[in-house]
């Protein structure tokens, strides 16, 4: 019995220490403007993130669940209708013409961010057999083990920015001494098929943007944009939730007062 108890304690210690031993590959928790119930998206940051996507990510990755019209809605990059139309017109969509022959047309506001490849086979052929992921919900599909005891706290106070932290860490986690620029300390196995996508000074911000032109800034901005793209209605929903909770609190207080009045002895 004592031996069984000893082995059980050793196993528990191993399970607890496992995440601690891997702390050097665990992404650092970032400070995001949109975190928490009162968080807000930074419109200027989302515009910069969209620019990073257009200049560095669009060539390989699609966002097939995001329409160009969504970019004009409040709470996001808030492009004007003309800006969104101009952006959409830069994408080419295949069509079948009246004579039955294949043709092309420019994008419209109702179109999605199309894949740059004709099909999956072409995508794999041009990327050494790997299929570039769609970025529409990439921050929802990526997470990491925050280790002990943080994962216990997450069970009571959920942390919803794990995907954002991981994506930011991945984009900035390439090892500088790798000649192929594919070694990444945060990717499982240490090597990712995607070469290092960002570098200092590669993107010149538009006239209205005032931010550092560094790899870290590019990664932070495009990550924020992809967080918004995965759930454009998040901010509206959170604000509505606060109003609903306030309303329910008032109703609960009124019901409690009514109950007290009914229990008051009548003279």
UniProtKB/TrEMBL annotation:
InterPro entries: Cyt_c-like_dom, Cyt_c-like_dom_sf, Cyt_c1. The chain crosses the membrane at residues 240-258. This is Cytochrome C. The keyword Membrane applies. Gene3D superfamilies: Cytochrome c-like domain. Residues 1-22 form the signal peptide. It comes from Citrobacter amalonaticus Y19. GO terms for molecular function: electron transfer activity; heme binding; metal ion binding. It is found in: Membrane. Residues 44-230 form the Cytochrome c domain. Heme c binds at residues 57, 60-61, 194. Keywords: Heme, Iron, Membrane, Metal-binding, Signal, Transmembrane, Transmembrane helix.
């Amino acid at each position: 019995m004592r031996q069984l108890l000893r082995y059980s304690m050793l196993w528990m210690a191993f399970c607890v220490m496992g995440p601690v031993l891997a702390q050097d590959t665990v992404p650092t928790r970032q400070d995001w403007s949109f975190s928490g119930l009162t968080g807000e998206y930074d419109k200027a940051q989302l515009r910069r993130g969209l620019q990073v996507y257009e200049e560095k990510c669009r060539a390989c990755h699609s966002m097939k669940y995001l329409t160009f019209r969504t970019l004009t809605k409040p709470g996001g990059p808030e492009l004007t209708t003309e800006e969104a139309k101009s952006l959409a017109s830069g994408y080419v969509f295949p069509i079948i013409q009246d004579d039955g022959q294949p043709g092309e047309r420019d994008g419209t506001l109702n179109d999605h961010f199309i894949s740059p490849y004709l099909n999956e086979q072409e995508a794999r052929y041009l990327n050494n057999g790997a299929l570039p992921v769609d970025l529409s919900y990439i921050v929802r599909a990526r997470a990491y083990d925050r280790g002990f005891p943080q994962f216990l706290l997450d069970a009571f106070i959920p942390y919803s920015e794990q995907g954002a932290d991981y994506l930011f860490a991945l984009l900035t986690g390439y090892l500088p001494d790798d000649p192929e620029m594919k070694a990444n300390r945060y990717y499982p196995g240490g090597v990712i098929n995607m070469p290092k996508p960002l570098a200092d000074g590669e993107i010149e911000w538009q006239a209205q943007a005032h931010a550092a032109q560094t790899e870290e800034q590019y990664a932070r901005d495009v990550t924020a944009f992809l967080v918004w793209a995965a759930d454009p209605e998040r901010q509206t929903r959170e604000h509505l939730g606060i109003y609903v909770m306030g309303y329910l609190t008032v109703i609960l207080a009124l019901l409690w007062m009514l109950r007290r009045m009914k229990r008051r002895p009548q003279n």
